[in-house]
Amino acid sequence: MMIFLLFSSFLMSTGHAQDAAVMPVILSSTASPEIETMIDTPAFLNSATDSQRKEYIELEGNPNLTMEMKQKALTNWALRCGNPVNGLYTQYMAEKQTLQEQEDQRMSVIVAQLSPEAQQADKHVRGITSNLNQTKKEMDTNVAKQLKKLPKKVYYELTFATQ
Questions:
Q1: In a 10 Å sphere around its CB, with 0-12 CB exposed, 13-18 middle and 19+ buried, how is residue 104 labelled?
Q2: Phi-psi category of residue 13: left, alpha or beta, with phi > 0 → left and psi -120 to 50 → alpha
Q3: In angstroms, what CA-CA distances link 31 with 2, 13, 27?
Q4: How many domains in the chain?
Q5: Full domain range(s) for residue 127
Q6: Do the domain assignments include residue 133?
Q7: Mean pLDDT of the chain
């Protein structure tokens, strides 16, 4: 029986709070699960060669790339690797996008119940996090600046409601 587990230990740095990988796990009838891939490593990286993994890690960890540049570089990396890496990477990114959309919908329902001030603050923060023409560090700094500007009441309402 195939089930999917959510793991957030291997982040893809999209700038969104919900960054998780969906990893397949095959459960056998015995007490211990037979794990199809290493739990912390996405299947596409398990299928990559050592040099391909090294290149991926260098791209993923490059703090000087904007998030858009990083996404393009990683997509090109997967294409250069060919299959099965490219297919598994494409599947991973599609699953990640689905999870992000689900999280965005969940958050929209929560935020709709907040005060108008908190809704406006959330709109500003989402505007920052959706801007892919900045590095992860720049995004984090801009979000922190925006949150620091908020009245304490709005800050607490927004942060507690969205946890």
A1: middle
A2: left
A3: 15, 35, 9
A4: 1
A5: 115-163
A6: yes
A7: 82
Nearest to 12 by CA among 57, 64, 78, 77: 57
Question: Are 43 and 92 in contact, with CB atoms under 8 Å apart?
Answer: yes
Confidence of residue 162 (pLDDT cuts 50, 70, 90): confident
Rounded distance, CA 133 to CA 98, Å? 22
- Identify residue 134 by its one-letter amino acid code: Q
pTM score: 0.72
- pLDDT at position 31 is 42
5 is a domain residue: no
Measured CA distances, 30 to 15, 25, 26, 27, 39 (Å): 39, 14, 11, 8, 19
Task: Tell me, yes or no, whether 153 lies in a domain.
Answer: yes
| Secondary structure of residue 57 in the 3-state scheme | helix
What CA–CA distances, in Å, run from 36 to 28, 61, 86?
11, 26, 18
The arithmetic mean of pLDDT across residues 37-55, rounded, is 88
